TrEMBL record:
Domain of life (superkingdom): Bacteria
Predominant localisation class: membrane
Cellular component aspect of the GO annotation: plasma membrane
Bilayer disposition of the protein: Multi-pass membrane protein
UniProt keyword annotations, A-Z: ATP-binding, Membrane, Nucleotide-binding, Transmembrane, Transmembrane helix
Membrane-spanning intervals of the chain: 163-181, 276-293
Domain ABC transporter: 363-587
Domain ABC transmembrane type-1 per the UniProt entry, residue ranges: 28-300
Stored SMART domains: AAA
Name of the protein this chain belongs to: ABC transporter
InterPro entries: AAA+_ATPase, ABC1_TM_dom, ABC1_TM_sf, ABC_transporter-like_ATP-bd, ABC_transporter-like_CS, P-loop_NTPase, Type_1_exporter
Pfam family, one: ABC_tran
């Protein structure tokens, strides 16, 4: 048997989603009080009209009381009209907030793989949000006046005559208890019904999507019987819900009709004995027939249905929008996911770097913090670093630690979340610093156009020197010289050839700082050595994201990004002092030398 799902997460979700609607809720409460006025006063006023007016031979007094009743009804009509506007201010934001939480929770689940989630889920769940919105709206329109009516009518009855109130109250209380107990069964069966409905949708979806395969395998019978079984189970659960809901009839009989019968049977005797007036008996009957019975019918009918649906649906939405609490991070109003990327807190020690006094042309990094997105964990945090003009710095570290991110920040193509990257006191910007990524871009045009892209006025002699320096002379000659047309560089040049052209282009550029982010990865080791040595000898600063031991060994200094504290030093120093660096060197050494990937002759 299905267990009733815990209702609390759903309730918490609804409460959280309704936060911020205090003002309209207060307005609804105020109008509800006005709406309740006739239910509170009607039986009592009718009793007075009879006892002090019509039965006492003073019809004018009786009419005056009835006029008061008319005024109360007019007020209620006004209140019923006025309450719609604040109701919409509760229900509409509820929908928006639920959708927001749901999409967030589903994205979180997809990113962190804590639950299976896809776009279909979001679509299905947003449909359920619409249902919840509709139900909350309906409950506010029905259950709210029902509750105030019940309370008001019972209060009015107790004031009118405590004995008659007891005659009504006892069977009513028993009926309410019976009803609440039966609600558990209704809710449980409704859960089964919802699950069965979803199963029908799932099975039907599978069969429709696999139609061709089913036909090819001759499995039509099997598929049809799967769908039939699911549909039969759904019908059975729907009938079970209907049977459980049928308890409403005895509840209304017990809590509504029986009290009327009791009043009518005992009323004349009570009046004759004295103490209870005829007006009070008529007033009590009015309370029960005009207010309590319809309220009970509503409570056991549509309100019970709405209520059980709301419990089931909000529980499901709560599960789908669930995002675990991250300490120190608020899930509300904008929930923050746990870190997606590998994060590292980077702070190069003062002795290592900050002691260097920056000079003109130095690249200066201060308290640099960067994250991909406002809610992602920082990839770099609090990094301080000075790269002196003319330096040759290799950045090393495990994959995903943030080397390329730092390269982008040094070149000014990424914007820090906090802190600065400056040259001569000015924030770096692309142009003064050239960043060469792993994927070299060669565009259709002449070889010369590509090489002069960053230095359009460069003379041929200077271009020759750049091409020779990075080791691209053979390639340029093979392509037909500077005027040779490259119509489809992506298709005709290998990755290594494209890297050589890009290296020559950056070498020839006026950039004072060059950042090579694995820009020689497709060259063989000899070609890489030529290019890196050329850049090291080039006036200006060189920063290389290193993927080989040789690159780190060639650099003047090495910045190791790993764990909480990055380390800076020469290759020899780090090899001797940093276990993490020694481990990385060991890893590089163990790797077989790469097969040349077409730096000169080879094609990918
Ligand atoms: N555009 C991006 N959006 C979100 N996260 C990113 C993005 N680029 C990188 N990251 C994440 O930031 C972290 C650092 O990435 P980065 O590419 O800087 O590392 P890396 O040390 O250069 O790695 P590798 O050596 O594999 O190139 C990684 O966890 C990565 O998944």
């Amino acid at each position: 048997m299905t267990e009733i799902a815990d209702w609390r997460p759903g309730l918490r979700l609804l409460r959280a989603a309704l936060r911020g609607t205090r003002a309209p809720v207060l307005r609804v409460a105020a109008w509800s009080a006005v709406e309740a006025a006739p239910a509170l006063a009607s039986g009592w006023v009718l009793g007075r009209a009879l006892d002090q007016g019509f039965l006492d031979g003073r019809p004018a007094t009786g009419l005056a009381w009835l006029t008061l009743l008319g005024v109360l009804y007019a007020l209620r009509a006004a209140a019923e009209r006025a309450v719609f506007e604040p109701l919409s201010h509760i229900v509409e934001p509820l929908r928006d907030e639920l959708v927001r939480r749901l999409v967030h929770g589903t994205l979180y689940a997809a990113v962190h793989r804590v639950r299976t989630a896809d776009a279909t889920d979001v679509a299905r769940l947003t449909g359920q949000v619409e249902a919840v919105r509709g139900i909350v709206g309906a409950l506010l329109r029905t259950a709210r006046p029902l509750a105030v009516t019940l309370v008001a009518a019972l209060t009015g009855l107790a004031v009118l005559d405590p004995l008659l109130a007891a005659l009504v109250g006892v069977p009513l209380a028993v009926a309410v208890v019976v009803f609440l107990v039966s609600m558990r069964t209704v809710i449980r069966r409704r859960q089964s019904y919802l699950a069965a409905e979803e199963r029908v949708a799932a099975v039907t979806g599978e069969v429709l999507a696999a139609g061709r395969d089913i036909t090819a395998l001759g499995a039509e019978e099997r598929a049809a019987s799967d769908v039939r079984d699911a549909a039969d189970a759904s019908v059975a659960t729907a009938l079970a819900v209907a049977r459980a809901s049928a308890v409403r009839a005895p509840v209304v009989l017990l809590g509504g009709r029986l009290p009327v019968l009791l009043i009518l049977l005992t009323g004349p005797a009570l009046v004759q004995r004295g103490g209870v007036s005829a007006g009070a008996v008529v007033g009590a009957v009015m309370y029960v027939t005009v207010y309590l019975v319809p309220a009970l019918e509503l409570m056991t009918g549509s309100v019970a249905g709405y209520w059980s649906q709301l419990r089931v649906l909000s529980g499901r939405l709560a599960a789908a929008s669930d995002v675990p609490d991250v300490p120190g991070v608020s899930n509300d109003p904008v929930p923050v996911p746990a870190p997606v990327s590998v994060s590292v807190s980077v702070s190069v020690s003062a002795q290592d770097v900050v002691a260097e006094v920056p000079r003109e042309g130095d690249l200066e990094v201060r308290n640099l913090t960067f994250a991909y997105g406002p809610h992602a964990a920082p990839v770099l945090r609090g990094l301080d670093l000075v790269v002196p003009s003319g330096d040759n710095l290799a950045i090393v570290g495990p994959s995903g630690i943030g080397k390329s991110t730092l390269a982008g920040l040094l070149a000014g193509v990424e914007t820090p979340l906090d802190g600065t990257v400056t040259m001569a006191g000015q924030p770096v910007r692309p142009g003064r610093v050239a960043l060469l990524p792993q994927e070299a871009y060669v565009f259709p045009g002449t070889v010369g156009d590509n090489l002069r892209y960053l230095a359009p006025d460069l003379d041929t002699a200077a271009l020759d020197r750049a091409v020779a320096a990075v080791g691209a002379r053979e390639l340029v000659a093979r392509l037909g010289g500077y005027d040779a047309e490259l119509t489809d560089p992506a298709g005709t040049l290998s990755s290594g050839e494209r890297q050589l052209i890009a290296l020559a282009r950056v070498y020839a550029s006026p950039a004072r700082v060059v950042v090579l982010d694995e820009a020689t990865s497709h060259l063989d080791m000899a070609a890489e050595a030529v290019a890196e040595t050329a850049f090291a000898a080039r006036p200006g600063t060189l920063v290389v994201i290193a993927h080989r031991l040789t690159t780190a060994a060639r650099a003047r200094r090495v910045l190791l990004l790993d764990g909480e504290r990055p380390v800076l030093g020469s290759h020899a120093e780090l090899s001797a002092t940093s276990p993490a660096y020694a481990a990385l060197v060991g890893h590089w050494t163990a790797q077989a030398p790469r097969v040349p990937q077409g730096s000169r002759a080879g094609r990918p």
